[in-house]
Design brief:
This protein has helices at about 20-30, 55-70, 80-85, 90-100, 140-155, 170-175, 190-200, 235-245, 265-275; strands at about 10-15, 40, 45-55, 85-90, 105, 110-115, 125-130, 160-165, 180-185, 210, 225-230, 245-260, 280-285, 285-290. By secondary structure, it is α/β, with parallel strands linked by helices. The protein has two domains: about 10-100, Alpha-Beta Plaits, CATH 3.30.70.120; about 105-290, 3-Layer(aba) Sandwich (Rossmann fold). The termini are far apart.
């Protein structure tokens, strides 16, 4: 698949996949290959791009990626060249391309922009993100769904918990909407570092605290007004009782990272857990569920 490495500064590696396979592809690139990435979504196709320096180790990493994609059944050996493309680029093109991969995202009255974008949006809540390896640049539909729901639910003085905080984007939004306190948790050290940087970029470090950990570290009961979590379905199922335990009565739980094809299963799960059911919003192949604590 790799072929000969052409003389250039970097290689741009693009992987095309279905949205349902997104987590498998991105987790391998960030966790196994240890690279940051950018994503593009169009129609029913998801594209992941990452950049490698032109060195011998890059050939090995590309081969590792190919073996992984075939072993996970995402493609065949014959179909690998259709799924993965490699393009040599200059250093300056890589920097420019990386920056252009993060256009400003506007969701209702919120504008999410990269740190190098100096555009201002009068009358909107502006969130500045330094894109790195952490999930949550505002580009993904699940992040946008969470933003849209938080806009409706956050009230001044609220206490907010964001589990799987990634870049810290949702906690930053809550703080800018008047939340009195927000705790962001993640088990990815790269995400923790990035989130702390973004909190400072947005000058909300007095309100938003970022910590390493998960729900097993939350000991407060009936403390938070809003809990938001953008995870995959199975993790949400496993953590649901923990979410509810730390929410105040009538508190709001906002959940995304759920595929539309999983909606029926999710409703069945909630019928057993919560008499209020849930409010569902949708964007392309993804849904967001809003649950009120009984």
């Amino acid at each position: 698949m790799a072929g000969g490495l052409i003389v250039a500064d970097y290689l741009e590696v693009s992987v095309r996949c279905a949205p349902v396979d997104e987590d498998l592809v991105t987790s391998f690139i960030t966790e196994t290959l240890n690279h940051g990435l950018v994503t593009e979504v169009s129609d029913n196709e998801f594209k992941v791009k990452f950049y490698l320096p032109v060195v011998d180790e890059s050939r090995e990493q590309i081969e590792m990626l190919g073996v992984y994609l075939v072993n996970r059944g995402l493609t065949t050996s014959d179909g690998l060249t259709d799924m993965v493309s490699i393009k040599p680029i200059d250093d300056i093109d890589w920097i420019k391309g990386f920056q252009q991969s993060f256009p400003t995202v506007v969701v209702d009255n919120v504008a999410v922009m990269s740190i190098w974008d100096k555009t201002h949006f009068p009358g909107k809540i502006e969130i500045v993100i330094e894109p790195k390896m952490a999930f949550g640049t505002g580009q993904h539909e699940t992040t946008q769904l969470c933003i849209a729901q938080l806009i409706k639910d956050i009230k001044p003085g609220h206490k907010v918990l964001d589990l799987g905080c990634g870049s810290g984007i949702l906690g930053i939004l809550a703080a800018k909407m008047g939340a009195a306190e927000c705790l962001g948790l993640d088990i990815d050290l790269a995400a923790i570092d990035n989130a702390k940087e973004n909190v400072v970029h947005n000058n909300v470090q007095d309100i938003v605290k970022i910590q390493f950990g998960s729900m097993d570290g939350i000991t407060r009961i009936a403390y938070y007004d809003v809990v938001v979590s953008n995870l995959i379905k199975d993790e949400i199922f496993n953590l649901y009782e923990n979410f509810m335990r730390c929410l105040k009565p009538e508190g709001v739980l906002i959940l995304s990272g759920i595929l539309a094809e999983q909606e029926e299963e999710f409703h069945g799960f909630l019928k057993l857990k919560n008499p209020h059911g849930c409010l569902v919003t949708r964007k392309t192949e993804w849904i967001c569920c809003r649950v009120i604590k009984a």
